[in-house]
């Protein structure tokens, strides 16, 4: 299964390099608003270029809504997940799928020498595997039928 041995560096080359982040002193409301505007499920929490945590829709639901807090009066720092589980560009798709499954998370920042270089989600990983499997199927069909692609 070559799709699982592909490195995250390769996967990142196939997606936009945009990384969305928010400051720890921002309100949770601002974070949720940004997630909605950017159509993402999580934001990195950065302070002066340093990764401090991650905030997700799940954090909001569990740590604000269910506990009766106000999203406008609660800071990101109060509900963010920290320390952050992260990977390097050398990790494989399979490695990341295991990390996400084992830790029950949906997003993994990608770091190189302490600097954030990307973000991958469970959706990115699943899409990669599906796309690669579809390519394999097309190649096998072409081989069986004696045609080239």
Features:
149 residues; CBS-domain; 5 strands; 46% helix; 19% strand; elongated
Tell me the CATH superfamily: CBS-domain
- Are there runs of 5+ residues with pLDDT below 50, and where? none
Instruction: Please tally the helical runs, counting DSSP H or I stretches of 4 or more residues.
Output: 7
CATH topology assignment: CBS-domain
**Mean pLDDT across all residues, rounded?**
90
CATH architecture title: Roll
Helix content: 40-55%
**What is the topology, as strand order, of the major beta sheet?**
1-2-3
Can you write the helix and strand succession as a string? HHEHEEHHHEEH
- Major sheet summary line: 3 strands, mixed
**Count of discrete domains:** 1
**Terminal-residue CA separation:** 20 Å
User: Hey, roughly how much beta strand do the residues contain?
Assistant: 15-25%
| Rg result | 18 Å
**Overall CATH class:** Alpha Beta
Number of strands: 5
Structural class: alpha+beta
List the helices and strands and how they pair.
Elements: H1 2-5, H2 8-13, E1 21-22, H3 28-38, E2 42-47, E3 50-56, H4 57-65, H5 76-79, H6 93-103, E4 107-112, E5 115-121, H7 122-145
Parallel strand pairs: 1-2
Antiparallel strand pairs: 2-3, 4-5
Helix pairs in contact: 6-7
How would you describe this protein?
With 149 residues, the chain is an alpha+beta fold. The protein has one domain (2-145): CBS-domain (Roll). It is built from seven helices and five strands, in the order H-H-E-H-E-E-H-H-H-E-E-H. The strands form two sheets. It has a three-stranded mixed β-sheet. A two-stranded antiparallel ribbon has the order 4-5. Strand 4 (107-112) and strand 5 (115-121) form a beta hairpin. Helix 6 crosses helix 7. The chain is elongated and about 65 Å long. It starts with a helix and ends with a helix. The mean pLDDT is 90.
């Amino acid at each position: 299964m070559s799709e699982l041995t592909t490195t995250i560096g390769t996967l990142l080359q196939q997606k936009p390099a945009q990384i969305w982040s928010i400051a720890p002193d921002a309100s949770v409301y601002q974070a949720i608003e940004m997630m909605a505007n950017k159509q993402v499920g999580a934001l990195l929490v950065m302070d002066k270029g340093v990764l401090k945590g991650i905030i997700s829709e799940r954090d909001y639901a569990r740590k604000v809504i269910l506990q009766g807090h106000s999203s406008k009066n609660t800071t990101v720092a109060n509900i963010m997940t920290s320390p952050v589980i992260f990977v390097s560009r050398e990790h494989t798709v399979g490695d990341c799928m295991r990390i996400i499954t084992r830790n029950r998370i949906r997003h993994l920042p990608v770091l190189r020498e302490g600097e954030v270089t990307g973000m991958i989600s469970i959706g990115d990983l699943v899409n990669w595997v599906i796309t690669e499997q579809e390519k394999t199927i097309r190649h096998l069909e072409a081989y069986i039928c004696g045609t080239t692609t």
